[in-house]
Amino acid sequence: MESRRHGAQLGTAGLLDTYETERHPVAERVVVFTQAQSALIGPGDEITGLRELFAELLRKPEVLGTLRR
């Protein structure tokens, strides 16, 4: 990533052409994960149940593999 910015500063054409298509999906995923984490730290019995469900799911390797993508 740093090399792309450096290249752009030097005037290398096209280096930033794909920046949005490459980074936008990553940024969207970060937003979704942040929203989910914010919801899980809230108070209340219904959230406690949700936290317990997520804790159970996170013990499964296939779930962890999905979240790591």
Q: What does this protein look like?
A:
This protein is mainly alpha-helical and 69 residues long. The chain is built from four helices and no strands. It is elongated and about 50 Å long. It starts with a helix and ends with a helix. The model has no long low-confidence stretch (mean pLDDT 82).
Q: What general outline do the C-alpha atoms trace?
A: elongated
Low-confidence spans: pLDDT under 50, at least 5 residues?
Answer: none
- Radius of gyration computed on alpha carbons: 19 Å
The termini sit apart by: 19 Å
Q: Helix/strand/pairing class, anyone?
A: mainly alpha
Summed up, the helix count is 4
Summarize the structure.
With 69 residues, the protein is an all-alpha fold.
